[in-house]
Design goal:
It holds the Pfam family DUF411. By secondary structure, the protein is α/β, with parallel strands linked by helices. It has helices at about 1-15, 35-45, 55-65, 90-100, and strands at about 25-30, 50-55, 75-80, 85, 105-110, 125-130, 135. The N and C termini lie far apart (about 40 Å).
Length: about 140
């Protein structure tokens, strides 16, 4: 019984601490400044980001299964789960993604000005899952 409680407490703690040190690989064009801004936002939020610069973003997005109508500049992959983060998705929404492994990917389509790496969050940034359904608002 005691053991069961300890295991349950551990599971709860780890689900809250998911962001800390979570490894993400980000593909970005070498000349993309706002992409670098987003990488900094993610690092400041506790993610362990590896940034890979490539001029061939189109084929990477295709390979990773990013729906073309939801495309943005950079594309991130959660190393442990394979979940996809397309564009300027706030760290909050990435944490929400990590908490639900049934969600394949989340996108902030285009280049919204109220997104991390672009500008200030204003409470109206809506991300969508890869089915196009609203996923988060920050
Ligand atoms: Cu961008």
């Amino acid at each position: 019984m005691k053991l069961w409680l300890a295991a349950a407490a551990l599971a709860a703690a780890s689900s809250f601490a998911q962001a800390a040190g979570t490894a993400i690989t980000v593909y970005q064009d070498p000349n993309c400044g706002c992409c670098t801004g987003w990488v900094e936002h993610m690092r400041e939020s506790g993610f362990d980001v590896t940034a890979i610069k490539t001029a061939d973003m189109a084929s990477i997005k295709q390979k990773l299964g990013v729906p073309s109508q939801l495309g943005s500049c950079h594309t991130g992959v959660v190393d442990a789960t394979g979940q996809i983060i397309e564009g300027h998705v706030p760290a909050n929404a990435v944490n929400k993604l990590l908490a639900d492994s049934s969600v394949k990917g989340v996108s902030a389509p285009g280049m919204p000005l109220n997104a991390p790496g672009m500008g200030e969050l204003d409470g109206n940034l809506v991300t969508v899952d890869f089915n196009g359904k609203p996923f988060s608002r920050d």
